[in-house]
Every structure is written in structure tokens, then in C-alpha cells.
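Sanity check. The docking grid for fructose -6-phosphate depends on where the pocket ends up, so I'm generating a full predicted complex first rather than guessing from homology. Inputs follow.
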Amino acid sequence: MCGIVGYTGMQQAATVLLEGLKRLEYRGYDSAGVAVIKDSGIDMRKVSGRISKLCEETNNGEALPGCVGIGHTRWATHGAPTDMNAHPHKSNDGRFAVVHNGIIENYQSLRDELIGKGYLFESETDTEVIVHLLEMYYTGDLKKTVLRVSSRLQGSYALGVICTDYPHEIVAVREASPLIIGIGVGENFFASDITALVPYTRNVIYLEDGEFARITPDEIQVFDLLGKIVKKEVRRVTWDVQAAERGGYEHFMLKEIMEQPHAVEATIHPRIQNGEIKLDDERMDAGFLNNINRIVITACGSAFYAGCAGRYAIESLCKVPVITELASELRYSEPMIDEHTLVIVLSQSGETADTIAAIKECKSKNASILAIVNVVGSTVAKLADFILYTWAGPEIAVATTKGYTTQLVLLYLFALYTARVTQRIDDKTYRKLLRAIKTLPRRIQESIDMNPTIASCAEKYKDARSIFFIGRNTDQAAALEGALKMKEISYIHAEAYAAGELKHGTIALIEEHQPVIALCCNEKVWGKTMNNIIEVKSRGGDVLAVTTKKNGMISSVADDILYIPETETLFTGLVEIVPLQLLAYYTAKNRNCDIDKPKNLAKSVTVE
Ligand code: F6R
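Predicted complex below; grid placement will be based on this.
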């Protein structure tokens, strides 16, 4: 949801900024721009379209000489993705340029006020008010001006500011949008996320909400919004450059699918010691867990579907009622939540606006928050009472894959751990399920090994207009995620249905050659789903079934079959999702879609 980057040092700023923007492009990619300070003022280039176009138009930044600058890649909110609406925005007097990630909620009243005072607007964006406010309040003191302007803004913003009177300085401001400062030698940076910084430095400072930084090549000063200096800890990032690069794969999505055995292993391994599960926070003990009488799982998109899939394991093993609620709904509902509720929040980025708002709502009702999150130090992690990090490494493709599977495996671990410490499971079952969890990375690898079969299966879907995904129980949760993967990257309409619900209306849409993907991996219910397959077949539908070899009856009902490796019924969701990810991937590839950057989407949804 927009990426911003800033540089001050000895290098050609525009070239560094463009490199950073390429790595942030997954956050938004409908237009882009850079601005640098040069002797005579601020030089700026903006284009609608991809960063590659901006690179062409600036000769990879060579055309914009200067050692201090800011850059932006946009996911449009206010105003179409045009050159004019692209960031940076410049003040009328040419002294300031600004890049912004977030939304200024009171922009309309500020815009009216500034127009009344004679400021000329060039764009339709909310952001442009910021740069005119900087000009209006400027007294010659940049710090005071930034403080004054920030006090007028409502909403979420990560800002990068340059000012010609401060030719070596960049200013970064954070309020409810991520912002990280990178510390180099004789050069410093800021960016919306670490991926843009890792080629240059692994030493970073995370800004908190309500903080801003003045950054020169040799110094970084962080202040709160009262102007008081804040002492910040320098953190060392463990991700390396390779982790944030494609490494020979055609797409990040494929690379990330292939990384899943390793990511799931890295997430499980440190948490199993001498046959016992150790969750990272000792406060999550029997006393705490026995006091919980309800669990609410909340998240957005795929993270929500991981929650839907994990819910079955928690209910079945922990015997606690579990409610799954979309974060965007929960934040405006009146959830039945109190101090005996544990809210489990799932988020890859840790910066999803609705998820953050849902946490705040639940905290206000005294619930405890357990965050399952991938990005260390993210807002979700900071707000939570307990954190379980998914050790998936950076996820760059917009469509999540390893983010989803590592979240789901942590839900399994949490379920089994809770059942064990609260003595709701017998020793034999505990050991059997723990063994099954330990083998999941291998099972995922076996699913990945079906890659060539899945690729040829995908040929069938190239020209489909619509695909149904059906299943029951854990299979239904996988259907939700499978359908989302298909629609977001292939642009084929895909709908997930609880198999038993088909006949309550939707079966009216089944006609000759309608593709239906039937998930029959859960042994407890596959017999029932197979009845639904027969109903689909008798109306002419084409069925691809995903199941295990144990299901001897499937070949008599389905047209095509993908056999996944067997695992414990409770955990099949983790294994069956892999062929669905690959199916979506190859279908999108056959349709020449832009797999890593699907249209209209962005990786980190930091606006509501
Ligand atoms: C879909 C996808 C999204 C995210 C959702 C939540 O492939 O990636 O649906 O799952 O936007 O994002 P996070 O997990 O960052 O909170």
C-alpha cells in the first residue's frame, strides 16, 4: 500500500532510490516518482505505470543528479494513477517535496483552507495538502515546521520530506504507517520496509507512531511529536539480500511456494524441545489458558482463511469455542469479548490497517491478544500481549503462500500446546499429533513434488470463466484460500462453497463443463463431499478432486484427481493448500498474468 524510500549520502540518490523502489514495488505499482535536491532546487520525475518506466525515463536515475532524495511507488487511493497524482508532490514555492504512504482523513477541509489561502493544487491526492502546509507554516526551522504540520494531520501517514534549505537532510515521520530507518556508513536511509534497505545495511531503527527523524549522512535524530529527543535502539536485521531476491525462479510466488517446507520447518523446529512444545512466552501457561473460555480469531484475506483452517484444530483439541471474524467486520461490530477471551490475530505484514483496528477494539474490552505475525517489530507485534513469529522470511509476491502455511502450522502448534498444558489431551494422542506436525514439512515437499502434474492439470483452466471450490470442514477452509489464490492472480472468478451448501442455491450455476475443484482430504467428511461431486457431475460439471490415495472411491466420481500425501486429518489443510497454490500459479501463468503484482492489489494493506 504505497512504498516510500529516502536516501542521503555520497551516492547518486536517484539510483539508490530506484533500487529501493523496485524492492518495494509489491506494495503498490500503479505510478512512481523520485525527487532529489540539486543546486538550483528540487528535481523531480513522476510516471504512471511501473518502476521500470521510471528507470527508463531517468536512465536508471543518472538523469537526476543529487545525493539527497525521496521516492515513492503508489497504490492509488485518492485520484487515478496518473503522472500528476504520482508522488512526490512539490510545494508551490519549490522548497519542499513530500512522499506519503497512508491516508490523510481530513484532507478535504485542509484542501479547502489552503485553496482559500491561494495555494495551487496540481493533483487530486490527499497527500498534496501536506506539502502546502509545510510551505504555509515554514519559518526557516524545519523541525518546528514538521511538528506544526503533523499536528494538523488526521489519519495514517509515513512521510518523507526534503527541503532545499536543508540540502543534506531527509525527514521521516511516522503515524500509523510503517517506517524504518537504515543506518549506513556516511549515508543513511529510510523505507517502508526492510526489503528496500537490506542491500545497503542490516542496522535499522524502527520508528514508532508519533515519532519523526531528521536524517543526514552522518547523523540520525529521532523526536516525538512534542519535539523531544527519543533514544532509539538499533536493531540488526537477520534477512539477507538473497532472501529478498528471486533466486533464479521466474516469479517470487513460485520461489515462495517452493520455500514452504523450509519456512514451516523453521517455524516449528525451535518450538519443539525434548518432545514438548515450547511457545515463546512463558506467561502463556496453564493458569492463563485455563482462564480463557473463548477464542476469537481475526485477520484479513488469506490470513483470515488460515484462521478458519486452524480453528478446527483448536476447537477439537482445546475444547474451547472459537469464533472467526474478519478484522474489517470485527472492528465495527460489538464483539462479545472480555478478559476471558483470547484473540488470535494473524498477519504476515503486521501492518494491515483493519487488523490493527480490530486489535485495538479487542484490547479496549480487556481481551488478551496473541499475534501470529511474520514481520518482526511490526505494529501488530507491538500491540499484542503475546507474539508467535512465523519464521517465513520476507514474502514479496503479493499473493501470500508461505505466510499462510506458517500461520496455519503455528495455529496447530498452539492448539496442541494448549491441549497439553491444560490436560485436555491424553499422552498418546499428544505424541501422535506432535509426530504428525514434525512431518508436515516433508508432506509439503511431497505436495510440491507433484508440480509437473499440477502444471499440466492447470492447462484445463486457462479459459475458464468461473471455478467453484467445494469442501467440508477443514477442506472448506482450504477451498476459501484456494479460490482466493485463483482469483487474485489469474483473474478468473472463483468461489468457495461449503459442499453441503451447493444445493441451497448455487447448484443452479452448475452446467455443462463448469469446472469444480472438490477437496476431499478430510477423511471424516469426504464421503459426504463425494455425494456432492455426484450431484455436480449429474449436471454436467467437470470435477478435479484433491484427495489422498486412501480414498479408493474417488476415481469413480471425479474426472481428474490430484493425490496429496497422507497426514493426520486435523492437519490436512496445510498439505492440500499447496496444489491449490500451484494450480492458481500455473493457471495465471498460462493466461500471461502479472503473477507477482496482480492488478489493483498491494501487499501490505495499510489503509482501511
Ligand atoms: C492474499 C493476501 C491477502 C493478505 C491480507 C492480509 O494472497 O495476501 O489476502 O492475506 O491482505 O495481509 P496480512 O497477512 O499482511 O495482514
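Relevant for the grid: The chain has a mean pLDDT of 94.
Also worth noting: The chain has 18 helices and 26 strands.
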